[in-house]
Amino acid sequence: MKAKLSTFVIMLCFWVILSGMFDAFHLTLGVLSCLLVAHFSGKMLFEGLRVEVRARQIFGMLTYAPWLLWEIVLSSLQVTYIVLHPQMLDKMEPQLIRFKTKLKSKFARVTFAQSITLTPGTITVSIQDDEMTVYALTNSAADSLPGEMERRIALALEPERR
Amino acid sequence: MNWVVTVLLVLGVFFFAIGTIGILRLPDFYSRLHAAGKCDTLAMTLTVSAVALYNIHGLSFGNILVSWKVFAIVFFISMASPTATHAITKAALVVGVEPWLKKRGPRK
Amino acid sequence: MMSQVFLATALALVLLIFLTLIRALSGPTVLDRIVGVNMIGSKTTVLLLLIGLIYEAMPMFIDIALAYAFLNFIATIGACKYFRRIKKVHLEDDLPTKIEASV
């Protein structure tokens, strides 16, 4: 019930931002469609978790986001360096690596995979349970995994499990 | 304010250009995804926030609403772009596109 | 003054879209083409926003850009799901030899 109510409130906020109309007709339409969505797919947003758990995860995400943004800038600069280098084939050491992650929840694992994709020189290829396959562009990028990023995500998203 | 917007736009177009050059120059499929995924995400974030910044100069209610929507685009893109990259990579691995590896000994 | 900046940016983006089109047309595998089309889509989203700024019709074009961003994402995911089942996309027989020659 709580999950459905929270879904309804979030959907309504989203509706108001997207439509920008405040007359009775549009607001009624919004409330009706939000009720429908909340009734039929209320479990989707919280996937059976308690609302507080998901809220804390999202708050942890906010503390993690600035660092991620900085990493995105660094990774784009690195791609710039490789792409503009005249002998770029010498700079590259492409390789597939596999390792096991310590993160437990689905949300943290997905965040970890997305972060790997966005940070310098690596993209996630697949996650099977706790084994991740990563394609790395250079040796140093391959050596840096899992390392600091996993620690930061564990700190932001799963503080009770450390 | 105008200068900030201009600088953000120029930086964004620069990273779009890097992504395009990368997708044309890099030797194999997987490394092309590096250029595509990362540079596009950063470039979109930069250009779209430039548009949002320029748009709030009037500071009326409608403008703020539009800027909210623009930031919704930024948020959505920064989540969707890695997901799309991941989906493409997974499809490539399942289909069996060979990664290009340098000829050398096994890694220590 | 600012509208000229936007115009120049939009022109640069159109140029880049044509360059990306080279990869989308010539990419050795189907998946290369998907990547190319995805990049074209993200550039188009920004282009739509810039058009909105130039013609001062932002509230209209922002909705179009939003819908375009969603569609771009869903189209990529859909195409990937489809080609994951089709096993015969090995169109890159000549790729390794080309790389050997250039090294």
In words, what does this structure look like?
The complex is a heterotrimer of chains A (162), B (108) and C (103). By secondary structure, chain A is mostly helical. Chain A folds into two domains: 2-46, no CATH class; 57-161, no CATH class. Chain A has seven helices and three strands, in the order ααααβαββαα. The radius of gyration of chain B is 18 Å and the shape is elongated. The termini of chain B are far apart. Helices cover 80% and strands 0% of the residues of chain B. Chain B has helices at residues 2-25, 29-55, 61-95. Chain B contains three helices and no strands. In chain B, helix 2 (29-55) packs antiparallel against helix 3 (61-95). Chain C has 103 residues and is mainly alpha-helical. Chain C has one domain (2-102). Chain C has four helices and no strands. In chain C, helix 2 runs antiparallel to helix 3. Chain C is flat, with a radius of gyration of 18 Å. The model of chain C is unreliable at 92-103 (pLDDT under 50). The interface between A and B is medium-sized, with 31 and 39 residues.
Tell me the major beta sheet of chain B.
Answer: none
Number of strands of chain B: 0
The total domain count of chain C is 1
Would you tell me the structural class of the helices and strands of chain B? mainly alpha
Number of helices of chain C: 4
Q: Cα-atom Rg of chain B, whole angstroms?
A: 18 Å
Put simply, the count of helices of chain B is: 3
Q: State the end-to-end CA separation of chain C.
A: 48 Å
Please tell me what the overall shape of chain B is: elongated
Q: Whole-number average pLDDT of chain B?
A: 80
Give structural attributes.
heterotrimer, A: 162 residues, mainly alpha, 2 domains, three-stranded antiparallel sheet, 7 helices, 12% strand, C: 103 residues, 83% helix, flat
List the helices and strands and how they pair.
The complex is a heterotrimer of chains A (162), B (108) and C (103).
Chain A lengths: L1 H18 L4 H23 L4 H34 L3 H4 L3 E6 L5 H13 L3 E7 L2 E6 L2 H5 L3 H11 L5
Antiparallel strand pairs in A: 1-3, 2-3
Helix pairs in contact in A: 1-2, 3-7, 5-7
Chain B lengths: L1 H24 L3 H27 L5 H35 L13
Chain C lengths: L1 H25 L3 H25 L3 H28 L9 H8 L1
Short description:
Chain B is an all-alpha fold and 108 residues long.
